[in-house]
Design brief:
Layout (H helix, E strand, L loop, with lengths): L5 H12 L3 H14 L1 H10 L5 H22 L11 H4 L1
Helix pairs in contact: 1-4, 3-4
């Protein structure tokens, strides 16, 4: 198992948190395009909560995706939507 270096996480977080709304939008679209099942799961999972909770969940998933992309140097493969039965 490989461990993502703390420095990489911190630099990605620093870069990520410095984005303006205009700068982050294309990256969010890329995340949503590459991981639609995660986005759908989080939206359904947080459906009974406020929009702020949904946005926070998506933001955290986006940040994790960004860290893994930086760590591997290549985009992650799409994670299949295996939790469909849990939601229904």
């Amino acid at each position: 198992m490989n461990i993502i270096p703390k420095e990489l996480i911190n630099s990605t977080l620093s870069k990520f948190s410095s984005y303006s709304e205009e700068e982050i939008l294309p990256d969010q679209k890329e995340f949503m395009k590459n991981q639609p099942d995660i986005v759908e799961f989080l939206l359904q999972f947080t459906d009974d909560h406020s929009d702020e909770i949904s946005r926070l969940a998506l933001h955290l998933a986006h940040l994790c995706w960004k860290v893994f992309n930086e760590a591997k140097g290549i985009p992650l493969k799409t994670i299949p939507f295996i939790l469909q039965t849990v939601i229904n």
